[in-house]
């Protein structure tokens, strides 16, 4: 069985590399070598190799023939595609929640808590609650395979974008509040429209942020 310490270490390394790549501090096309990453972070090669494999599975890195990894980075088109996949899965999840008539109160609680953090101008707290809202969707299905697939989609660029990009807290609250309300009403038509509006809003943010980053890192 894999030790907890090693699991935590590889996740930590993957988080650092992922953030540096998405911030363009590690450039697209740059080559990463296990030994160099391990030396720079002061860790052994084993968790570095596992972290690089995780990022390869996410599409952030590409394996080369000489055992090096090449950075693929993130473009507006690839980011938009990832968000589109999450939107499609979350719409399907809502169909399951509707069929099961799942209690929407936990979603309303997150929306209410978000409003409180927004009033307090706690941006970090709002961002965490927004991720909690998405994670709760798949948890509420009670289906482990859907939960794992959803978590994998959320764990990469999506989490980075919500945690780092500049957005309007009030606009985000309105989207989350509407979706939670439509869940409570079990109104599928409005629920689907709510997800379309929410993700379209984020596509506009992605375009602004990634185009701005391209100008900073030509």
In short:
With 218 residues, the protein is mostly helical.
Structure write-up:
- The N and C termini lie far apart (45 Å).
- This protein has a three-stranded antiparallel β-sheet.
- With 218 residues, the chain is mostly helical.
- The chain has nine helices and three strands, in the order αβααββαααααα.
- The model has no long low-confidence stretch (mean pLDDT 89).
- Helices cover 77% and strands 4% of the residues.
- The protein has two domains: 68 residues, Winged helix-like DNA-binding domain superfamily/Winged helix DNA-binding domain (Arc Repressor Mutant, subunit A, Orthogonal Bundle); 141 residues, Four Helix Bundle (Hemerythrin (Met), subunit A).
- Pfam families: FCD, GntR.
The average pLDDT is: 89
Q: Total domains, how many?
A: 2
Supply Rg: 19 Å
Strand order of the largest sheet: 1-3-2
CATH class of the largest domain equals: Mainly Alpha
CATH arch. level architecture of the largest domain:
Up-down Bundle
Could you name the key traits of this structure?
Four Helix Bundle (Hemerythrin (Met), subunit A), WH_DNA-bd_sf, 3-stranded antiparallel β-sheet, transcription regulation, 218 residues, DNA binding, 9 helices, GntR family transcriptional regulator, mainly alpha, Arc Repressor Mutant, subunit A, WH-like_DNA-bd_sf, 3 strands
Fold blueprint:
Layout: H1 4-22, E1 31-32, H2 34-41, H3 45-58, E2 61-63, E3 69-71, H4 76-100, H5 105-119, H6 123-141, H7 144-164, H8 169-185, H9 188-216
Antiparallel strand pairs: 1-3, 2-3
Helix pairs in contact: 1-3, 2-3, 4-6, 4-7, 4-9, 5-6, 5-8, 6-7, 8-9
């Amino acid at each position: 069985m894999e030790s907890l310490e090693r699991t935590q270490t590889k996740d930590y390394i993957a988080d650092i590399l992922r953030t540096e790549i998405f911030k363009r501090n590690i450039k697209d096309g740059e080559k990463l070598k296990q030994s160099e990453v391990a030396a720079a972070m002061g860790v052994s090669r084993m968790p570095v190799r596992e972290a690089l494999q995780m990022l390869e599975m996410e599409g952030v890195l590409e394996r080369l023939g000489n055992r090096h990894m090449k950075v693929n980075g993130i473009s507006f088109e690839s980011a938009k595609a990832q968000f589109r996949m999450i939107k499609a899965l979350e719409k399907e999840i809502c169909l399951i929640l509707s069929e099961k008539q799942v209690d929407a109160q936990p979603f309303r609680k997150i929306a209410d808590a978000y409003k409180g953090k927004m009033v307090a101008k706690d941006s970090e707290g709002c961002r965490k609650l927004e991720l909690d809202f998405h994670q709760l969707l798949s948890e509420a299905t009670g289906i482990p395979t859907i939960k794992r697939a959803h978590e994998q989609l959320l764990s990469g660029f999506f989490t980075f974008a919500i945690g780092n990009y500049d957005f309007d807290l009030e606009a985000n609250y309105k989207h989350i509040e509407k979706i939670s309300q439509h869940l409570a009403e079990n109104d599928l038509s409005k629920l689907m429209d709510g997800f379309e509006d929410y993700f379209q809003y984020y596509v506009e943010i992605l375009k602004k942020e990634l185009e701005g980053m391209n100008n900073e890192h030509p």
